[in-house]
Amino acid sequence: MRRISALVLVFTGVVFAAGPDVGELVRRSVENNDRNWKAAPSYTFTERDVITKSGKATRREYRVFMIAGSQYNQLIAENGEPLTGARAAAERVKLEQETKRRNSEAPSARARRVAQYQRERRQDHELMNEMVKAFDFKLAGRAQMNGRDCWVLDATPRAGYRPATHETKVLTGMRGRMWIDTREYQWVKVHAEVFRPVAFGLFIAHVQPGTEFTLEEAPIGQGLWMPARLVTKVRATALMIWSQNSVDDETYTDYRQANSAVY
Q1: Is a pLDDT exceeding 90 seen at residue 139?
Q2: pLDDT score recorded for residue 150
Q3: Which of 122, 190, 208, 261 could form a disulfide with 42 if both were Cys (CB 3.0 to 4.6 A apart)?
Q4: Is the pLDDT of residue 174 over 60?
Q5: Domains of the chain: which residue ranges?
Q6: Measured distance CA(245)–CA(34) in Å, rounded
Q7: Average pLDDT, the chain
Q8: Minimal CA–CA distance to 180: which of 144, 213, 212, 229?
Q9: What's the CA gap between 197 and 194, in Å, rounded?
Q10: Closest alpha carbon to 190 in 155, 236, 242
């Protein structure tokens, strides 16, 4: 047993010293992220938003679920207080009316609504996955993050990268860091920040340094991980006469599998 234990220690030491194959590590994590993304519509969850603009914060809480092929956000709390009385009743009426409307809409109208929802989902997902093409990854070590043992990867812009869409152009001016769970190859945390201005259109609008986002994910069972928190900070200017500075802090909890992915 001592010999076996010694061999195990030697083997794990060699693996740690050499580190994982970074390309394989990223590939496996992206495959898992795709699987999580496909499963997401079959889960309901609670979303808490804190949106800060011009120093003023608004706080809202929603129950998020699917109705007839697209997502619906039911407001359940505001400024930290659950809705009661007339406000709660009004939100229940809105839910009933929207459910009735969707279930009775013409097939062409339903197709347009569902297509819009799916298009928005793909855009968000493609931005995350496009990072793999836009960045070069380098192993930075191993660390604990949110109670998980992680491989830590630093990401820098890849020379010659061509953005696939207008939205992914921002990646050309970003760098970041990724924490990947060493056992499940899931994204525990992804952070990216703009370090040089990125122009959109005919050099009219610029996304400025200070713009950044941080995504944290956590296991919810059945081998799936879902977003736990997303913080987006935006600094942008246009023609030197318009600017936006905002922080959107969203947390996601209480994931539950719905009776059906679409109902």
Answers
A1: yes
A2: 98
A3: 261
A4: yes
A5: 21-257
A6: 31
A7: 86
A8: 144
A9: 7
A10: 155
Reading the block at residue 220, the tokens are 């919810």
Average pLDDT over residues 177-188: 97
Give the bridge partners for 149, in sequence order: 144
Token code pair at residue 117:
């929802």
pLDDT at 208 over 50: yes
Residue 254 to residue 257: CA distance in whole angstroms: 10
- Dist. CA 246–CA 35, nearest whole Å: 31
pLDDT at 224 over 50: yes
Q: What is the pTM of this model?
A: 0.84
pLDDT value of position 203: 46
Long-range contacts of 94-99 (CB under 8 A, 24+ apart): 98/67, 98/72, 99/67, 99/68
Output the DSSP codes for the chain.
-HHHHHHHHHHHHHHHHH---HHHHHHHHHHHHHHHHHHGGGEEEEEEEEEEETTEEEEEEEEEEEETTEEEEEEEEETTEE--HHHHHHHHHHHHHHHHHHHHS-HHHHHHHHHHHHHHHHHHHHHHHHHHHHEEEEEEEEEEETTEEEEEEEEEEPTT---SSSGGGGGGGEEEEEEEETTT--EEEEEEEE-S-EEETTTTEEEPTT-EEEEEEEEEETTEEEEEEEEEEEEEEETTTEEEEEEEEEEEEEEEE-S-S--
Q: Are 65 and 258 in contact (CB under 8 A)?
A: yes
Strands 135-145 and 187-194: unpaired
In the predicted structure, residue 153 carries a pLDDT above the cut 80: yes
C-beta separation of 96 from 88 below 8 A = no
Which structure tokens are listed for 134? Answer: 């836009």
70 pLDDT band (50/70/90 cuts)?
very high
